[in-house]
Specification:
The protein is mainly α. The chain is built from 4 helices and no strands. The radius of gyration is 17 Å and the shape is extended.
């Protein structure tokens, strides 16, 4: 067992994740999820600052478009992108 010393924002996110996970203790997975959520919140805040409105409908359209594009990728391209992102 270990504790996570974090700020107010991280604590709020951690509490939400633990509730979703049924009270499971924090782990590397949870810490990674916190960081991912923080990056997403930072991006949302930056878009708002620039006058852009992000909606659930817009996100769904973007996901659908990305899925269609990815279906056209060859296995070689997928492997190259995966390797480049490491």
């Amino acid at each position: 067992m270990f504790t996570v010393d974090c700020g107010r924002r991280e604590s709020r996110i951690l509490e939400g994740l633990c509730r979703q996970a049924g009270g499971v203790r924090a782990s590397a997975y949870v810490v990674s999820a916190i960081r991912d959520r923080m990056r997403a919140e930072d991006l949302d805040a930056e878009l708002v600052r620039r006058g852009m409105t992000v909606t659930a409908e817009g996100r769904a359209r973007a996901r659908a478009l990305r899925a269609r594009v990815e279906q056209e990728w060859t296995p070689g391209r997928r492997a190259a992108l995966r390797e480049r992102s490491r």
